[in-house]
Amino acid sequence: MIAKLNGIKTIIRSVRNSIDFNYEQIMNDINFSQKQGIDTVLFFSKQTLSHISSTAVKELQKNYGSIIEYVPLNVKEALERKISEQYLLGVTGEIGAGKSFVSKKLMEMQFRYGDEDPISNIDMDDIGRKILTEYTEPLFVEAREKLIRKIGKRSLQEECGKIDLQKMTNLMFLDAGVLSIFNEIMTEPILFEFRRRLQGLKGIILVNSALFAEAGLSYLTNNNILMVTADKKERIKRLKKRGYNSAGIEARLNVQLTWEAKYNRIHKEIENTQHGEITIFDNTAPSPKEFKNLFNSLFVGE
C-alpha cells in the first residue's frame, strides 16, 4: 500500500539462503496477484555474510558478545544504547598523562553537576594485571603459560604459574618484541574479561587503556575517544613520584606512541569507518572549570 501511494515501482529485498528465497517468492506472488504494477528485485548476500541476521546480532548483544564483524560501528553503538543501555567512551593517552585521574574526576563530577546516566570505569590495564597474577580459570592460565613459553620461564615466572608483574612490565617497556608477543597472546583473554565486566553495567562506561591506538582496539568504544594529554615535564615529574628512575622513565616514554601519533591512528580508523569522535583534554594543570566544561561537552551536550 505504501509503495503504491508513493509511486514506487520496484521493491528491493535481500536473500541469505533458500528459506529466505522461498519466502520472498511467495511474497512476490502475492504482490503480483494484487495487480499493483510493483516488481520485486532480489539481491543475494555474500556467502561469508549468510549467517548474519538481526535476531542473531540482537541475541549476541544481549549476551555481551562481539558484534563487530556483524554490523558497522554506528549500528553497534545504537544496539549498545538500545539493548544494553550503555554508552562506551575510551580514555587513552601517553604514560603519565593522567588517564586514571581524569576518569576518576569524571566519575566524581556526575554527582556534582548531575547526569541521568551513571558513570562506570573499566580499566583494561587492571584486567591485564589480574590475568597475569590472579585469575585461575583455564583461559587465563593458558595465556600465562604461553607467555612463559615464548618469553622464558626465568624472565617471568614467580610461583604457581603466575607472572612476575614487575618483570613483565619492564620487559615490555624495554623490548618492542616482548610487547608484540604480549599483545598477540593477551588480546583474546583481555577482551573476554572486558565483555564479562560489561555485564550488568548501565549508562556511561569509561574504558581506560594506554594502548587503544597501538593494539587497534578503538572499535571497542566505537572510535569515541577521550585523548588525555600533558606536558612532557609534568609527565616525567609524575613518573618520578611513582618511583621510576630516569632510565626507566625514558624507556617507557620511548616505547609508547606520542599522543599525536595515537590521535592520527585513531583518526584514520574514524575515516575508514565513518564513525567516532576524539576529544582532546590537556591534563597538565586543569582548572575545575575546565573539568566542568569537559564533563558537559562529553555527557551533557553543553
Provide structural commentary:
By secondary structure, the chain is α/β, with parallel strands linked by helices. The protein folds into three domains: 2-49, no CATH class; 85-118 and 202-302, Rossmann fold; 128-192, no CATH class. Helices cover 56% and strands 14% of the residues. The protein has a five-stranded parallel beta sheet, sandwiched between helices. Strands 1-2 form a two-stranded parallel sheet.
Q: Helices, strands, pairings?
A:
Layout: H1 2-5, E1 10-15, H2 18-33, E2 39-44, H3 54-62, H4 73-84, E3 86-93, H5 99-113, E4 119-123, H6 124-133, H7 138-151, H8 153-156, H9 165-174, H10 176-198, E5 203-208, H11 212-215, E6 224-229, H12 232-241, H13 246-255, H14 259-273, E7 277-282, H15 288-300
Parallel strand pairs: 1-2, 3-5, 3-6, 4-5, 6-7
Biggest beta sheet attributes: 5 strands, parallel
- SS-based structural class? alpha/beta
**What number of domains?**
3
Name the CATH architecture of the largest domain.
3-Layer(aba) Sandwich
Question: Uncertain runs with pLDDT below 50, 5 residues or more?
Answer: none
Q: Mind telling me the CATH superfamily name of the largest domain?
A: P-loop containing nucleotide triphosphate hydrolases
Please tally the helical runs, counting DSSP H or I stretches of 4 or more residues. Answer: 15
* Envelope shape: globular
Strand content: 5-15%
Q: Kindly state the number of beta strands.
A: 7
Percent helix, as a range, is: 55-70%
Gyration radius over CA: 24 Å
Q: Report mean pLDDT, rounded to a whole number.
A: 88
Distance between the termini: 44 Å
CATH class descriptor of the largest domain: Alpha Beta
For the largest beta sheet, what order do the strands appear in spatially?
4-5-3-6-7
